[in-house]
Amino acid sequence: MVRPTLDEIVVPPMPEGIEVRPADDPSLYRQLFDADADAFVDHWGGFTADDAAFAEWTQDPDFDPSLFVVGWDGDHVAGAVFNKIEARENEELNRKRGLLDSVFVRRPWRRRGLAAALVARSLVQLRERGMTSAWLGVDADNPTSALGVYERAGFAVDRRSTAYRKPMDLEPKP
């Protein structure tokens, strides 16, 4: 999905008890990574939160936690948007587009408007960093109705694809 402009962003209030705080302290990175994995544990696009995956995430050349928008409930990560600016791709395509790389709200904090509040703040964050548009990927059949959140935030479908899964018997045949 693409939001072609970062003009006219409506920023809803944060849900009661949730506050946005910076997340660029390296001691928080693992907590953030694990919260992201937890939010997607029952989703087909989930991922393994092992040490190798964590290292790969933090070593990405575009990893910039100062772009992250994190909703905290005390010391707990309620939800977040891990924003990214892919500088090389933007240069190659002559554009200024930010990526909402991972958008998540953990189960206890869902259905309170947190995703919409974090997405809007992410768009503002990207605009303040000089971006003029934004994009993200989403599973249209996401059980949390994420597609609607993004459409209400001004995103429109840019491309569609279909993923198929086929169970495989990995047991050796005699």
Strand and helix map with partners:
Elements (H helix, E strand, L loop, with lengths): L1 E2 L15 E3 L7 H11 L11 H9 L9 E5 L2 E10 L1 H7 L3 E9 L8 H15 L4 E3 L10 H7 L22
Which structural traits does this protein have?
single chain, 174 residues, alpha+beta, Aminopeptidase, 6 strands, 28% helix, globular
Number of helices: 5
Question: What's the multimeric state?
Answer: single chain
> What gap, in angstroms, lies between the N and C termini?
48 Å
CATH architectural arrangement: 3-Layer(aba) Sandwich
State the total count of DSSP E strands.
6
The largest beta-sheet arranges its strands as 1-6-5-4-3-2
How helix-rich are the residues, as a percent range?
A: 25-40%
Structural class: alpha+beta
Identify low-pLDDT runs.
none
CATH class call: Alpha Beta
Share of β-strand residues: 15-25%
The run of helices and strands is EEHHEEHEHEH
